[in-house]
Every structure is written in C-alpha cells, then in structure tokens.
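User: My instructor asked us to take a sequence, write out its structure as tokens, and then describe one feature of it. I'm not sure where to start. Here is the sequence I was given:
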Amino acid sequence: MHPCLKKKIKRKDGKFVISFIGKEFYDKGGNDLLKAYEILTKKYKNLKLKFKGDVPEEYKNIKLPGLQFVKGHFPREELFEKMYLSADVFVLPTHSDNYGVVFLEAMSAGLPVVGTTSFTVPELIEDGKNGFLIKTQYSWEMYFTKNGKLDRKKYEEDVMKEHPEIIKQLVEKISLLIENKNLREKMGIESRKIIEGGKLSIKERNKNLRRIYEEVLKD
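Assistant: Let's start with the prediction itself. The structure tokens for your sequence are:
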C-alpha cells in the first residue's frame, strides 16, 4: 500500500467522525457497529458515523443522530476524501476478512483503526499501538469442518445475531479514542509509519522479495 499523499481534512464542525466501509453487512459486523454507535450517541452528542456498504432493508430506516449511509461508487481520490481523510477513526468489526485492504487505506491516511481478532486482521492492527483489536469467536475460519468445507449455515446464523460481548468492546475502545485526542493522534501516526516504512510498506515488501529471489538464485 502506497501512503496517501493528501493530508487529513481539517474540519470545524466539532464532530467526532467514525468511518466504516464493508460490502457485506453482517459479515463485516455492521449490525454490531450500529448497535455500539446507538449506545455511544447516548453518551456523546458530537458523533457522526459515515457508513458505506450494503444495508439490509430492516436497517435502512434506522434513525440515529449523525448516522449517514454513504451511497455510490467513487474514484479512489474521492473515496479517500469522503471516508478517510475527513474521519477520526476507522472501524470494521469484521468476521470474514482474509486480509482487509480498507484497513491499509485507513492507515495510509493516518487513522487509528479498530478491527477484530478475525483471521489475518491482527497482522495489520497492533493492539494498543495503531488501533484496537476486538475479540471475536465468530471469525469465519472457525466454521470450516474437518473435510475443509465451510459450514455456511451455522456461520450465517451466528453472525446475524447480536453480539453483546463485541458491542461492549466496541463502545469501550471507541470511547477511549473519543475522549483521548492525544491517543488517537499517536495511533494515527503509528498507522502511517507502518505503511510508509514499516512491515506493510512497499519498501519492506521489495526488501523481502529481493531476499526470496536471492535465496532461490543461490540454489
């Protein structure tokens, strides 16, 4: 992931903006985030949630202060401006990402990121350093049977439920970022560092590729 070349947008609206991008509503934990956000709006009056993704019919008419369902497809530059550079934190309580490019995009824009312990997400988010990890027991790789097939029925039944333990963690971690400006700025800087020159940088990737090629050539 190349670092985002544009600087964060300085807003004067006094809002704390949470950004979410997830194509599959339940797989990406959209239901848990909306419930956590509902709880947070009762505690904080300056919140805004920019929610971009598939929204089931039963959620489309939900009315929460500051909730904005972002529709449409945007060029990359416009997407960054709308969803990352104008936000304070990126949150994706996913159950199904086997990598999660949106986390890298948010990090490249200098945002603290909140994700789950699902699959490879802990390789992107260093808990307490550039964001927070939410513990989940519903990660999709846990639903593979012994013969290597995904028990999709059981998985879908579980992810479509409300998860109080996940919602509680989301409220706690997002509250920390709302209340501590220094913490979220520090985490945002760490996110950017990981993309610019850290383990997820182009520089580090090229270094590892060179090492691999050189080892192969020796053989």
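For the description part of your assignment, you could build on this observation: The chain has one domain: 16-191. Try explaining in your own words what that tells you about the chain.
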